[in-house]
Amino acid sequence: MAMNRRDFLKVSTSASGGLVLSLSLPGCATVDTGYSENAGTWRPDAWLEIQDNGNIYFTLARVEMGQGTYTGLTTLIAEELDVEPASIKPRFAPVAKEYLNPAYKLQITGGSTSVATSWEPLRRAGAEARYMLMMAAAKVWQVETDNCSTQDGRVVHPNGIDSLPYARLASLAASEIPRIEVPLKPRSEWKYIGKQMKRLDAEAKATGTAVYGIDIEQPGMLYAVVTRPPRYGAKVKSFNKADVTVHSGVKDVFEIERGVAVVATSYWRARKAQRALQVEWDNDDAITLSTESVFHHYYKDSEQDAGVSEREDGDYAQAEEQAGKVLHADYEQPYLAHFAMEPMNATAWYKGDAMEVWASTQAPDLGRIAAARGCDLSPGDITIHTTFLGGGFGRRLTNDYIEEAAAVSYRMKAPVKLVWSREEDTQHSPCRPAMLHRMRAAVSGNRLEGWHHQIVGPQILDWYITNAAPAQYPWAPKMLYNTLGRVGLAAEGLATPKDVSAIEGAIDYPYQVPNVELRHTHSDPGFPITWWRSVGYSHNGFAVETFMDEIAHELGEDPIAFRRARLQNQPRHLQVLDRVAEMSRWNSASASGRAKGVAVFQSFGTFVAQVVEASIEGSEIKVHKVWCAVDCGQVVNPSVVSDQIKGGILFGLSAALWGEITLADGKVQQSNFHDYPVMAMHNLPDVELDIVDSNEAPTGVGEPGVPPVIPALGNALFRLTGVRQRRLPLKASS
């Protein structure tokens, strides 16, 4: 029997003679495949299900949080299966090894990897299933398989007239085995990939039928809120339970690992009773940080520890020694909140020997570990039901809200929905880390001879490994969870992936400079952190592209010409830079009182150049227009790419203009939109987007719009005012 050269499908025959196929991924034993006569369903692989009644289901292994996976990934499988994407019904994947993200070896949606990692596997799954259906029809007609064709969910006879629907062929196709490597469609035959199509989830979201975590209802459900310590690390010493339980509808008030839970028959009854709760905190282990002390420690650590060398080209020390001038600049960037539209929430139902959890999570396998921490069950006894997410931005990779819901349900032995308020979300969520960048450049005459970048700050994996490591070994007893985390950290870069969260976007500095040195000084103040949209690229983009602008100014060169001269061996950088220069009419003067700034940056495999035009009106910065050129390889859906790049631009501008979580005596000072503003309709700039038509493999689009817009705005303000701002957020006057 001729097998697929790429070993994409493992093939075995069941006792009944039906074909059983599963994806060639680690531990492919958790998803049933083959034909079920009772259900009238054929599952050719872990993603597709074709029913005798004509329904086609696609198991979506990446969650939908607004970034378009629901549409984009469905389009990939629909293209090769030769059906309209709208005819496929996506459903969210359960926790199973078949659905691991190969970029992380975890079931994670993040890092703008969804389309990139699914590009070939999903198309190949659709192509294999389509060919098996053709084989089945060919047997019925007694013709050669390769003389058949398909069209819109039907196999077409070689005569071009007769046809059979996939639904009637499903049971027969289950016994077929492809004896060739099924070719994928050439680009010239694509019907759906690269075409502008409406989002498949648009109607459900517009009509309110899309189910988010916060929408979940269960029979007899209770509602919980949690009062957490205002300073991270504090513990409960005592609380006035009797004063709270007298409130109407309150079922119980008790301590959990992260604070004090109030459980009631409705959310608003729980909130009302919470107002009467008074907790005395044990602050012995609580942090006492201030924003000023964080950066004081960063500067101190940077001077005492030169850091780990992450990249060394040439000899920067010698270049600096021989330089005619050495430029210095320090860039400070604050902690940032995520502010997803849907606050953190989860519903858990402890049933004695099992638990079900419904949650908006970017990492259902890690959510299962978090739930196990909150009860007496093993991960295998816990089922995670993933819903639509009302925004993620990396926050929903940390599943603390699931752990809380599980702990409360375990205590109550009932279904419990736990909801964080916006204020709790702001003051108790982990943030994007504050970072310090210390830059030096060796300049001789009009030549940039050396580039030195010292990054000072923590690594996100240090805060994430406690659940990530156990998720890879769900059979391990809970007593080993923390040990697995410590082992994971110790094995970083060896048995586990290297944590590049602090250095990504800096280690692949693209400019041609003979002497380049990058170092990371690990400094962790102890404030909880997690991933944030574009992660390390967000802060490294600001430092790298602002300092490049400073050097260009020092050398008296035009910012784009300066970059172009040093990107001659980077054709994709150059292409987007040239396109944005043309779009923005860079060499033409701006209107009076306005100025333009530029930045070009690669993140998540995608190349983005942006020009921002801004002014200062009274005491406010006004962003008038953003021009953006993007090369993300092959585009699956231009509409989704446009939405995500533009959304990333607005997300980045929010951070550039207002984003800042500040600390005083260990307490977060912000609480809601009034003191942590985000981009509102009246602030929106005009955004003009140019997408490169590329044959390269697709890369990420959810995050690459963020990093360049922040330095581009800062560079525009410098050209406008002559004052260089090196600390975010940017100010109208400094």
From TrEMBL:
* SMART domains named among the record's database cross-references: Ald_Xan_dh_C (SM01008)
Q: Which InterPro entries match?
A: Ald_Oxase/Xan_DH_a/b (IPR000674), AldOxase/xan_DH_MoCoBD1 (IPR008274), AldOxase/xan_DH_MoCoBD2 (IPR046867), AldOxase/xan_DH_Mopterin-bd_sf (IPR037165), N-heterocyclic_Hydroxylase (IPR052516), OxRdtase_Mopterin-bd_su_IorB (IPR012368), TAT_signal (IPR006311)
Gene3D superfamilies named in the record: Aldehyde oxidase/xanthine dehydrogenase, a/b hammerhead, Aldehyde oxidase/xanthine dehydrogenase, molybdopterin binding domain
Q: Which residue range or ranges hold the Aldehyde oxidase/xanthine dehydrogenase a/b hammerhead domain?
A: 207-285
What are the protein's GO molecular function terms? oxidoreductase activity
This chain belongs to which protein, by name?
Answer: Isoquinoline 1-oxidoreductase
